[in-house]
From TrEMBL:
PANTHER family per record: D-ALANYL-D-ALANINE CARBOXYPEPTIDASE, PENICILLIN-SENSITIVE CARBOXYPEPTIDASE A
Molecular function in Gene Ontology: carboxypeptidase activity
Domain of life (superkingdom): Bacteria
Family: Belongs to the peptidase S13 family.
SUPFAM superfamilies (alphabetical): beta-lactamase/transpeptidase-like
Signal peptide limits: 1-43
Keywords: Carboxypeptidase, Hydrolase, Protease, Signal
The protein, known as: D-alanyl-D-alanine carboxypeptidase/D-alanyl-D-alanine-endopeptidase
Stored InterPro entries: Beta-lactam/transpept-like, Peptidase_S13
Location of the region described as Disordered in the Swiss-Prot/TrEMBL record: 45-98
Residue spans of biased composition, Low complexity class: 80-89
Length: 484
Protein backbone atom coordinates (compact mmCIF):
# COMPACT_ATOMS: atom_id res chain seq x y z
CA UNK A 1 0.00 0.00 0.00
CA UNK A 2 1.53 3.39 -0.95
CA UNK A 3 1.97 6.12 1.59
CA UNK A 4 -1.09 8.32 1.97
CA UNK A 5 0.91 11.38 0.98
CA UNK A 6 1.68 10.13 -2.52
CA UNK A 7 -1.93 9.70 -3.67
CA UNK A 8 -0.65 7.62 -6.57
CA UNK A 9 -1.67 10.13 -9.23
CA UNK A 10 -1.09 7.69 -12.07
CA UNK A 11 -3.43 5.12 -10.52
CA UNK A 12 -6.08 7.77 -10.06
CA UNK A 13 -5.96 8.73 -13.72
CA UNK A 14 -6.07 5.16 -15.01
CA UNK A 15 -8.70 3.75 -12.69
CA UNK A 16 -12.21 3.15 -14.07
CA UNK A 17 -14.51 6.11 -13.66
CA UNK A 18 -16.85 4.31 -11.27
CA UNK A 19 -13.92 3.31 -9.07
CA UNK A 20 -12.59 6.90 -8.99
CA UNK A 21 -16.02 8.15 -8.01
CA UNK A 22 -16.29 5.56 -5.24
CA UNK A 23 -12.90 6.55 -3.83
CA UNK A 24 -13.74 10.25 -4.07
CA UNK A 25 -16.99 10.05 -2.15
CA UNK A 26 -15.56 7.55 0.35
CA UNK A 27 -12.83 10.07 1.13
CA UNK A 28 -15.37 12.83 1.61
CA UNK A 29 -17.43 10.61 3.92
CA UNK A 30 -14.33 9.78 5.94
CA UNK A 31 -13.51 13.47 6.20
CA UNK A 32 -16.92 14.15 7.71
CA UNK A 33 -15.94 11.86 10.57
CA UNK A 34 -12.76 13.86 11.12
CA UNK A 35 -14.81 16.96 11.85
CA UNK A 36 -16.03 15.42 15.09
CA UNK A 37 -12.51 14.50 16.20
CA UNK A 38 -10.82 17.72 15.17
CA UNK A 39 -11.58 19.96 18.12
CA UNK A 40 -8.02 21.18 18.42
CA UNK A 41 -7.86 21.98 14.74
CA UNK A 42 -11.18 23.79 14.93
CA UNK A 43 -9.96 25.90 17.81
CA UNK A 44 -6.54 26.77 16.48
CA UNK A 45 -7.36 27.05 12.81
CA UNK A 46 -5.88 24.82 10.12
CA UNK A 47 -2.89 27.11 9.64
CA UNK A 48 -1.83 26.32 13.22
CA UNK A 49 -2.46 22.57 13.08
CA UNK A 50 0.24 21.48 10.68
CA UNK A 51 -2.38 19.93 8.42
CA UNK A 52 -2.14 22.77 5.94
CA UNK A 53 1.61 22.10 5.68
CA UNK A 54 0.86 18.48 4.94
CA UNK A 55 -1.62 19.61 2.33
CA UNK A 56 0.95 21.87 0.68
CA UNK A 57 3.44 18.97 0.67
CA UNK A 58 0.83 16.68 -0.85
CA UNK A 59 0.06 19.20 -3.57
CA UNK A 60 3.75 19.62 -4.33
CA UNK A 61 4.21 15.86 -4.56
CA UNK A 62 1.78 15.80 -7.49
CA UNK A 63 3.95 18.06 -9.65
CA UNK A 64 5.60 16.32 -12.52
CA UNK A 65 8.22 18.92 -12.55
CA UNK A 66 -16.23 41.04 3.34
CA UNK A 67 -16.87 42.58 4.57
CA UNK A 68 -18.07 39.06 5.16
CA UNK A 69 -18.94 37.46 8.44
CA UNK A 70 -16.53 34.62 8.93
CA UNK A 71 -17.11 31.10 10.21
CA UNK A 72 -14.59 29.20 12.32
CA UNK A 73 -12.68 26.69 10.19
CA UNK A 74 -13.01 23.00 10.88
CA UNK A 75 -10.61 20.80 8.92
CA UNK A 76 -8.52 21.23 5.79
CA UNK A 77 -9.60 20.26 2.33
CA UNK A 78 -10.92 16.97 1.03
CA UNK A 79 -8.06 14.96 -0.50
CA UNK A 80 -9.82 14.40 -3.86
CA UNK A 81 -9.57 18.10 -4.61
CA UNK A 82 -5.83 17.94 -4.09
CA UNK A 83 -5.52 15.01 -6.45
CA UNK A 84 -6.02 17.35 -9.36
CA UNK A 85 -3.26 19.77 -8.45
CA UNK A 86 -0.38 19.53 -10.87
CA UNK A 87 -1.56 16.15 -12.15
CA UNK A 88 -2.01 15.25 -15.79
CA UNK A 89 -5.61 15.51 -16.99
CA UNK A 90 -7.66 12.51 -15.88
CA UNK A 91 -10.12 12.88 -18.74
CA UNK A 92 -10.90 15.30 -21.55
CA UNK A 93 -12.26 18.61 -20.26
CA UNK A 94 -15.94 19.50 -20.53
CA UNK A 95 -17.09 21.20 -23.70
CA UNK A 96 -18.51 24.70 -23.87
CA UNK A 97 -21.88 23.37 -24.97
CA UNK A 98 -21.92 20.88 -22.13
CA UNK A 99 -21.06 23.53 -19.57
CA UNK A 100 -23.60 25.91 -21.06
CA UNK A 101 -26.31 23.30 -20.68
CA UNK A 102 -25.39 22.80 -17.02
CA UNK A 103 -24.79 26.42 -16.04
CA UNK A 104 -26.99 28.72 -18.09
CA UNK A 105 -30.33 27.79 -16.51
CA UNK A 106 -28.82 28.63 -13.13
CA UNK A 107 -27.22 31.85 -14.38
CA UNK A 108 -30.70 33.02 -15.42
CA UNK A 109 -32.07 32.61 -11.90
CA UNK A 110 -33.41 36.03 -10.82
CA UNK A 111 -32.04 35.44 -7.32
CA UNK A 112 -28.60 36.34 -8.67
CA UNK A 113 -29.69 39.90 -9.41
CA UNK A 114 -29.58 42.10 -12.47
CA UNK A 115 -26.15 41.17 -13.84
CA UNK A 116 -24.17 37.95 -13.84
CA UNK A 117 -20.79 36.87 -15.11
CA UNK A 118 -19.18 33.45 -15.31
CA UNK A 119 -15.87 31.91 -16.34
CA UNK A 120 -14.72 28.29 -16.23
CA UNK A 121 -11.11 27.40 -17.05
CA UNK A 122 -9.30 24.08 -17.34
CA UNK A 123 -6.77 24.18 -14.49
CA UNK A 124 -4.43 21.75 -16.22
CA UNK A 125 -3.95 23.90 -19.32
CA UNK A 126 -5.40 27.35 -18.54
CA UNK A 127 -7.77 26.95 -21.49
CA UNK A 128 -11.07 28.83 -21.18
CA UNK A 129 -13.95 26.36 -21.32
CA UNK A 130 -16.96 28.60 -20.75
CA UNK A 131 -17.65 32.30 -20.42
CA UNK A 132 -20.63 34.58 -19.99
CA UNK A 133 -19.78 38.28 -19.82
CA UNK A 134 -16.51 36.99 -18.40
CA UNK A 135 -14.40 39.95 -19.52
CA UNK A 136 -16.59 42.61 -17.89
CA UNK A 137 -15.46 44.07 -14.58
CA UNK A 138 -17.69 43.58 -11.54
CA UNK A 139 -17.31 44.50 -7.88
CA UNK A 140 -15.57 41.40 -6.53
CA UNK A 141 -16.04 41.93 -2.78
CA UNK A 142 -13.74 39.53 -0.94
CA UNK A 143 -12.81 37.46 -4.00
CA UNK A 144 -10.30 40.26 -4.68
CA UNK A 145 -8.29 38.65 -1.87
CA UNK A 146 -7.28 36.02 -4.44
CA UNK A 147 -5.52 38.75 -6.41
CA UNK A 148 -3.95 40.19 -3.26
CA UNK A 149 -2.68 36.78 -2.18
CA UNK A 150 -1.26 35.86 -5.59
CA UNK A 151 0.52 39.18 -5.90
CA UNK A 152 2.12 38.88 -2.46
CA UNK A 153 3.28 35.32 -3.10
CA UNK A 154 4.71 36.27 -6.49
CA UNK A 155 6.50 39.29 -5.03
CA UNK A 156 7.90 37.77 -1.86
CA UNK A 157 7.64 34.00 -2.06
CA UNK A 158 5.71 31.63 0.24
CA UNK A 159 8.52 31.42 2.81
CA UNK A 160 8.74 35.16 3.49
CA UNK A 161 8.19 36.24 7.12
CA UNK A 162 7.35 39.69 8.50
CA UNK A 163 9.56 40.84 11.36
CA UNK A 164 8.70 42.97 14.37
CA UNK A 165 11.87 44.33 15.94
CA UNK A 166 13.20 46.25 18.89
CA UNK A 167 16.20 48.47 18.19
CA UNK A 168 18.31 50.89 20.19
CA UNK A 169 17.15 54.49 20.07
CA UNK A 170 18.82 57.72 21.04
CA UNK A 171 17.42 57.69 24.58
CA UNK A 172 15.96 54.21 24.94
CA UNK A 173 14.50 51.54 22.69
CA UNK A 174 12.18 51.61 19.69
CA UNK A 175 9.51 49.03 18.90
CA UNK A 176 9.45 48.88 15.09
CA UNK A 177 6.37 47.53 13.35
CA UNK A 178 7.02 45.48 10.24
CA UNK A 179 3.38 45.10 9.22
CA UNK A 180 2.43 41.79 10.88
CA UNK A 181 -1.23 42.06 11.99
CA UNK A 182 -1.12 38.56 13.50
CA UNK A 183 1.46 39.53 16.13
CA UNK A 184 -0.19 38.41 19.35
CA UNK A 185 -0.07 39.52 22.95
CA UNK A 186 -2.01 36.47 24.09
CA UNK A 187 -0.38 33.50 25.83
CA UNK A 188 1.75 31.42 23.50
CA UNK A 189 0.00 29.08 21.12
CA UNK A 190 1.24 25.72 19.84
CA UNK A 191 1.68 24.73 16.22
CA UNK A 192 4.23 25.12 13.45
CA UNK A 193 2.66 28.29 12.10
CA UNK A 194 1.82 30.01 15.37
CA UNK A 195 1.82 33.80 15.31
CA UNK A 196 4.74 35.89 16.47
CA UNK A 197 4.50 36.61 20.18
CA UNK A 198 4.82 40.05 21.74
CA UNK A 199 5.50 38.23 25.02
CA UNK A 200 8.52 36.49 23.50
CA UNK A 201 9.71 39.81 22.12
CA UNK A 202 9.43 41.29 25.62
CA UNK A 203 11.35 38.31 27.06
CA UNK A 204 14.21 38.76 24.61
CA UNK A 205 14.25 42.53 25.03
CA UNK A 206 14.33 42.34 28.83
CA UNK A 207 17.18 39.84 28.74
CA UNK A 208 19.17 42.00 26.33
CA UNK A 209 18.68 45.14 28.43
CA UNK A 210 19.64 43.39 31.65
CA UNK A 211 22.73 41.93 29.96
CA UNK A 212 23.76 45.49 29.26
CA UNK A 213 23.16 46.48 32.86
CA UNK A 214 20.08 48.50 31.91
CA UNK A 215 16.96 48.18 34.01
CA UNK A 216 15.31 51.41 32.94
CA UNK A 217 14.42 52.66 29.46
CA UNK A 218 12.19 54.89 27.42
CA UNK A 219 9.99 53.23 24.78
CA UNK A 220 9.14 54.69 21.39
CA UNK A 221 7.16 52.96 18.65
CA UNK A 222 7.79 53.27 14.92
CA UNK A 223 5.08 52.74 12.26
CA UNK A 224 6.94 54.44 9.41
CA UNK A 225 7.11 51.25 7.33
CA UNK A 226 3.57 52.08 6.15
CA UNK A 227 2.50 55.33 4.50
CA UNK A 228 -0.69 57.24 3.86
CA UNK A 229 -4.02 57.12 5.72
CA UNK A 230 -4.55 54.31 8.20
CA UNK A 231 -8.34 54.24 7.95
CA UNK A 232 -9.84 52.13 5.20
CA UNK A 233 -11.90 54.17 2.68
CA UNK A 234 -15.10 52.67 4.10
CA UNK A 235 -14.16 54.08 7.51
CA UNK A 236 -13.60 52.45 10.87
CA UNK A 237 -15.86 49.47 11.51
CA UNK A 238 -15.95 46.00 13.01
CA UNK A 239 -14.62 44.37 9.83
CA UNK A 240 -11.17 45.96 9.85
CA UNK A 241 -8.81 47.84 12.13
CA UNK A 242 -6.90 50.95 11.07
CA UNK A 243 -4.15 49.70 8.76
CA UNK A 244 -0.84 50.31 10.50
CA UNK A 245 2.57 48.64 10.55
CA UNK A 246 2.24 47.86 14.27
CA UNK A 247 -0.69 46.13 15.94
CA UNK A 248 -1.41 43.08 18.05
CA UNK A 249 -4.19 40.59 17.45
CA UNK A 250 -5.45 42.64 14.51
CA UNK A 251 -6.45 45.42 16.86
CA UNK A 252 -9.30 43.31 18.27
CA UNK A 253 -10.77 44.31 21.60
CA UNK A 254 -12.06 40.84 22.40
CA UNK A 255 -10.54 37.37 22.40
CA UNK A 256 -11.68 36.37 18.90
CA UNK A 257 -9.13 35.53 16.23
CA UNK A 258 -11.28 36.19 13.17
CA UNK A 259 -14.64 37.58 12.15
CA UNK A 260 -16.22 40.86 13.14
CA UNK A 261 -15.15 42.51 16.39
CA UNK A 262 -14.79 45.92 17.96
CA UNK A 263 -11.39 47.32 17.01
CA UNK A 264 -8.89 49.68 18.58
CA UNK A 265 -8.89 53.15 17.08
CA UNK A 266 -5.13 53.44 17.72
CA UNK A 267 -3.75 49.89 17.42
CA UNK A 268 -0.09 50.95 17.21
CA UNK A 269 -0.16 52.92 20.45
CA UNK A 270 -2.12 50.14 22.15
CA UNK A 271 0.45 47.58 21.01
CA UNK A 272 3.29 49.73 22.36
CA UNK A 273 1.52 50.22 25.70
CA UNK A 274 0.99 46.47 25.98
CA UNK A 275 4.67 45.92 25.21
CA UNK A 276 5.64 48.42 27.91
CA UNK A 277 3.47 46.56 30.43
CA UNK A 278 5.09 43.26 29.44
CA UNK A 279 8.55 44.78 29.94
CA UNK A 280 7.54 46.04 33.38
CA UNK A 281 6.34 42.53 34.29
CA UNK A 282 9.84 41.35 33.38
CA UNK A 283 11.54 43.85 35.68
CA UNK A 284 12.26 46.68 33.22
CA UNK A 285 11.23 50.15 34.36
CA UNK A 286 9.70 51.86 31.31
CA UNK A 287 9.74 55.61 31.76
CA UNK A 288 6.58 57.64 31.25
CA UNK A 289 4.10 56.77 28.53
CA UNK A 290 5.07 55.43 25.14
CA UNK A 291 5.44 57.86 22.25
CA UNK A 292 5.46 57.67 18.47
CA UNK A 293 8.76 58.23 16.68
CA UNK A 294 11.16 56.77 14.17
CA UNK A 295 14.11 54.48 14.71
CA UNK A 296 17.49 55.95 13.77
CA UNK A 297 19.13 54.72 10.60
CA UNK A 298 21.18 51.54 10.98
CA UNK A 299 20.03 51.21 14.56
CA UNK A 300 21.38 48.30 16.57
CA UNK A 301 18.89 45.43 16.74
CA UNK A 302 18.11 44.24 20.26
CA UNK A 303 15.40 41.61 19.64
CA UNK A 304 13.03 40.40 16.93
CA UNK A 305 10.16 37.99 16.27
CA UNK A 306 8.86 36.77 12.93
CA UNK A 307 5.40 36.05 11.58
CA UNK A 308 4.37 32.66 10.22
CA UNK A 309 5.49 32.18 6.60
CA UNK A 310 3.59 34.08 3.95
CA UNK A 311 2.02 30.80 2.77
CA UNK A 312 0.30 30.42 6.15
CA UNK A 313 -0.80 34.07 6.20
CA UNK A 314 -2.31 33.64 2.73
CA UNK A 315 -4.14 30.50 3.78
CA UNK A 316 -5.55 32.19 6.87
CA UNK A 317 -6.57 35.20 4.79
CA UNK A 318 -8.49 33.12 2.27
CA UNK A 319 -9.98 30.54 4.64
CA UNK A 320 -11.48 33.13 6.96
CA UNK A 321 -11.65 36.07 4.53
CA UNK A 322 -9.44 38.04 6.90
CA UNK A 323 -9.49 41.71 5.92
CA UNK A 324 -6.65 42.82 8.19
CA UNK A 325 -4.17 40.28 6.87
CA UNK A 326 -5.28 40.96 3.30
CA UNK A 327 -4.45 44.65 3.63
CA UNK A 328 -1.09 43.72 5.16
CA UNK A 329 -0.33 41.42 2.22
CA UNK A 330 -1.08 44.22 -0.21
CA UNK A 331 1.29 46.56 1.61
CA UNK A 332 4.03 43.94 1.77
CA UNK A 333 3.67 43.67 -2.01
CA UNK A 334 4.12 47.44 -2.28
CA UNK A 335 7.25 47.30 -0.13
CA UNK A 336 8.69 44.57 -2.34
CA UNK A 337 8.09 46.81 -5.35
CA UNK A 338 9.72 49.83 -3.72
CA UNK A 339 6.37 51.63 -3.69
CA UNK A 340 4.77 53.50 -0.77
CA UNK A 341 3.00 51.05 1.51
CA UNK A 342 -0.29 52.93 1.33
CA UNK A 343 -3.70 52.02 -0.11
CA UNK A 344 -2.72 53.62 -3.39
CA UNK A 345 0.79 52.22 -3.50
CA UNK A 346 -0.40 48.73 -2.60
CA UNK A 347 -3.13 48.80 -5.26
CA UNK A 348 -0.59 49.73 -7.91
CA UNK A 349 1.88 47.08 -6.80
CA UNK A 350 -0.76 44.33 -6.76
CA UNK A 351 -1.94 45.29 -10.26
CA UNK A 352 1.64 45.30 -11.54
CA UNK A 353 2.28 41.83 -10.15
CA UNK A 354 -0.89 40.47 -11.76
CA UNK A 355 0.30 41.87 -15.08
CA UNK A 356 3.70 40.19 -14.63
CA UNK A 357 1.91 36.89 -14.07
CA UNK A 358 0.38 37.28 -17.52
CA UNK A 359 -3.19 37.59 -16.24
CA UNK A 360 -5.91 39.55 -18.09
CA UNK A 361 -5.75 42.89 -16.25
CA UNK A 362 -7.04 45.28 -18.92
CA UNK A 363 -9.81 47.41 -17.42
CA UNK A 364 -9.49 46.14 -13.86
CA UNK A 365 -9.16 48.40 -10.84
CA UNK A 366 -7.64 47.30 -7.55
CA UNK A 367 -8.58 49.78 -4.84
CA UNK A 368 -7.70 47.83 -1.68
CA UNK A 369 -6.42 44.44 -0.59
CA UNK A 370 -9.51 43.15 1.19
CA UNK A 371 -12.40 43.81 -1.16
CA UNK A 372 -14.27 46.04 1.26
CA UNK A 373 -14.00 48.92 -1.21
CA UNK A 374 -16.70 48.88 -3.88
CA UNK A 375 -14.30 50.70 -6.18
CA UNK A 376 -12.57 47.35 -6.79
CA UNK A 377 -13.41 46.12 -10.29
CA UNK A 378 -12.20 42.79 -11.67
CA UNK A 379 -13.52 40.24 -14.14
CA UNK A 380 -14.55 36.62 -13.74
CA UNK A 381 -11.98 35.85 -16.43
CA UNK A 382 -9.18 37.27 -14.27
CA UNK A 383 -10.21 35.32 -11.18
CA UNK A 384 -10.58 32.00 -13.00
CA UNK A 385 -7.30 32.42 -14.86
CA UNK A 386 -5.56 33.38 -11.60
CA UNK A 387 -6.74 30.15 -9.97
CA UNK A 388 -5.58 28.13 -12.95
CA UNK A 389 -2.20 29.85 -12.75
CA UNK A 390 -1.97 28.83 -9.09
CA UNK A 391 -2.37 25.18 -10.17
CA UNK A 392 0.34 25.50 -12.82
CA UNK A 393 3.46 23.47 -11.90
CA UNK A 394 5.54 26.35 -13.28
CA UNK A 395 4.21 28.57 -10.46
CA UNK A 396 4.59 26.53 -7.26
CA UNK A 397 4.95 29.77 -5.29
CA UNK A 398 1.24 30.42 -5.90
CA UNK A 399 0.01 27.08 -4.56
CA UNK A 400 -1.15 28.52 -1.18
CA UNK A 401 -3.85 30.38 -3.12
CA UNK A 402 -5.43 26.98 -3.70
CA UNK A 403 -4.66 25.33 -0.38
CA UNK A 404 -6.13 28.33 1.42
CA UNK A 405 -9.52 28.14 -0.28
CA UNK A 406 -12.41 27.19 2.03
CA UNK A 407 -13.77 23.69 1.47
CA UNK A 408 -17.50 23.40 0.75
CA UNK A 409 -19.31 22.23 3.85
CA UNK A 410 -16.17 21.91 5.96
CA UNK A 411 -14.09 25.05 6.52
CA UNK A 412 -13.95 28.81 6.64
CA UNK A 413 -16.62 30.87 4.95
CA UNK A 414 -18.05 27.81 3.17
CA UNK A 415 -18.46 25.71 6.27
CA UNK A 416 -22.13 26.58 6.68
CA UNK A 417 -23.10 26.91 3.04
CA UNK A 418 -23.19 23.29 1.90
CA UNK A 419 -25.48 20.90 3.74
CA UNK A 420 -24.71 17.24 4.35
CA UNK A 421 -26.58 16.25 1.19
CA UNK A 422 -25.14 18.96 -1.10
CA UNK A 423 -23.55 17.53 -4.24
CA UNK A 424 -20.51 19.81 -4.13
CA UNK A 425 -19.72 19.20 -0.47
CA UNK A 426 -16.01 18.45 -0.12
CA UNK A 427 -15.44 18.71 -3.88
CA UNK A 428 -15.68 22.49 -4.23
CA UNK A 429 -13.12 24.89 -2.78
CA UNK A 430 -13.90 28.54 -3.22
CA UNK A 431 -13.38 32.08 -2.01
CA UNK A 432 -16.61 33.85 -1.18
CA UNK A 433 -17.40 37.51 -1.69
CA UNK A 434 -20.28 39.37 -0.08
CA UNK A 435 -21.24 43.03 0.12
CA UNK A 436 -24.76 44.43 0.06
CA UNK A 437 -26.02 43.70 -3.44
CA UNK A 438 -22.78 41.92 -4.41
CA UNK A 439 -22.30 38.15 -4.28
CA UNK A 440 -19.35 36.34 -5.84
CA UNK A 441 -17.73 32.91 -5.70
CA UNK A 442 -14.42 31.85 -7.25
CA UNK A 443 -12.57 28.60 -6.76
CA UNK A 444 -11.88 25.10 -8.00
CA UNK A 445 -13.88 21.92 -8.42
CA UNK A 446 -13.03 18.38 -9.40
CA UNK A 447 -15.45 17.12 -12.03
CA UNK A 448 -17.15 13.74 -11.98
CA UNK A 449 -14.33 12.45 -14.20
CA UNK A 450 -11.45 13.79 -12.12
CA UNK A 451 -10.66 16.98 -14.03
CA UNK A 452 -9.72 20.05 -11.98
CA UNK A 453 -11.53 23.19 -13.16
CA UNK A 454 -11.23 26.78 -11.99
CA UNK A 455 -14.37 28.91 -11.95
CA UNK A 456 -15.59 32.37 -11.06
CA UNK A 457 -19.17 33.58 -10.76
CA UNK A 458 -19.93 37.26 -10.14
CA UNK A 459 -23.31 38.90 -9.58
CA UNK A 460 -24.77 42.31 -8.93
CA UNK A 461 -28.09 43.21 -7.35
CA UNK A 462 -29.18 40.01 -5.60
CA UNK A 463 -29.86 39.41 -1.94
CA UNK A 464 -27.16 37.52 -0.10
CA UNK A 465 -28.96 34.41 1.10
CA UNK A 466 -30.82 33.66 -2.13
CA UNK A 467 -27.89 34.53 -4.40
CA UNK A 468 -25.46 32.42 -2.39
CA UNK A 469 -27.71 29.37 -2.73
CA UNK A 470 -27.62 29.71 -6.51
CA UNK A 471 -23.86 30.36 -6.55
CA UNK A 472 -23.33 27.18 -4.57
CA UNK A 473 -25.50 25.28 -7.05
CA UNK A 474 -23.40 26.68 -9.90
CA UNK A 475 -20.20 25.44 -8.28
CA UNK A 476 -21.86 22.08 -7.62
CA UNK A 477 -22.84 21.91 -11.29
CA UNK A 478 -19.19 22.38 -12.24
CA UNK A 479 -18.14 19.64 -9.85
CA UNK A 480 -20.76 17.24 -11.22
CA UNK A 481 -19.97 17.97 -14.83
CA UNK A 482 -18.87 15.50 -17.49
CA UNK A 483 -20.51 17.98 -19.82
CA UNK A 484 -19.60 16.62 -23.21
Amino acid sequence: MPEAGSWQIGWWQNAPRAQRRTVRFAAVSALAGLVVAAGAVSAAGPWDSGQRKAERDLAAAGRATGGERHSRPAVPAAPPVLAGLGARPAAPPPTRDGLAEALEPLLKDPALGERTSAAVVDAATGTPLYGADEGTEYTPASTVKLATAAAALAALGPGHRIETTVVAGGDGIVLVGGGDPTLTARPDRAGPDRPASLRELADATARALKARGTGRTKLTYDTSRYAGPTDHPIGANENIAPVTALMVDEGRLDDSDHGTADRSTEPAADAARTFADLLRERGVDVEDDVSSGQAPGKAERIAAVSSPPLSALVERTLTNSDNDIAEALARQTALAAGAPASFEGAAGAVTERLEKLGLPTSGIRIADGSGLDRADQVSAELLAQLLARAADPRHPELRPVLTGLPVAGFSGTLRGRYGSDAGGRGLVRAKTGTLTGVNTLAGTAVTSEGRLLAFAFMTSGGSAEAAQRVLDRLATAVAGCGCR
